[in-house]
């Protein structure tokens, strides 16, 4: 199943059309649940990519998992933090200047962040560093670098 397939975002007016839309959405939800159970590494990669072209039904299910902590296998410090780092324009070289203790603290803040769903939405939506600053617990450090 192509999870990047674009399904019309316009609700259909006929009963058959609405049923077809709901069937497609439920198939995508089941695909995400299957990934969660059988291929968590693949689901983690989808989170890491934060692809804006991802089908809205798939994205909504992933956001639900992130919001409810239903994806404990997703390591935010390995999936979301590198993207947020890039959003703030911070290079690996700059990250290398951090003391090990400070880097560990950043990873811990990211991995325990309660805003993972909002973070993922912001990254998928192409929000600026300024907009991401409101939700990222590591924004101050990124800006300092």
UniProtKB/TrEMBL annotation:
<dbReference type="InterPro" id="IPR045601">
    <property type="entry name" value="DUF6455"/>
</dbReference>
<feature type="domain" description="DUF6455">
    <location>
        <begin position="79"/>
        <end position="145"/>
    </location>
</feature>
<dbReference type="Pfam" id="PF20056">
    <property type="entry name" value="DUF6455"/>
</dbReference>
<protein>
    <recommendedName>
        <fullName>DUF6455 domain-containing protein</fullName>
    </recommendedName>
</protein>
């Amino acid at each position: 199943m192509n999870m990047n397939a674009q399904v019309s975002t316009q609700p259909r007016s006929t009963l058959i059309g609405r049923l077809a839309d709901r069937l497609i959405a439920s198939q995508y939800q089941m695909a995400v649940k299957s990934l969660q159970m059988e291929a968590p590494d693949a689901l983690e990669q989808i989170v890491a990519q934060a692809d804006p072209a991802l089908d809205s039904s798939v994205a909504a299910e992933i956001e639900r998992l992130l919001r409810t902590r239903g994806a404990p296998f997703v390591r935010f410090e390995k999936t979301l933090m590198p993207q947020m780092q890039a959003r703030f324009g911070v290079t690996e070289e700059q990250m290398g200047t951090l003391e090990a203790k400070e880097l560990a603290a950043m990873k811990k803040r990211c991995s325990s962040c309660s805003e993972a769903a909002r973070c993922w939405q912001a990254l998928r939506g192409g929000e600026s560093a300024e907009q991401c600053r409101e939700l990222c617990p590591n924004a101050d450090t990124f800006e300092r670098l």
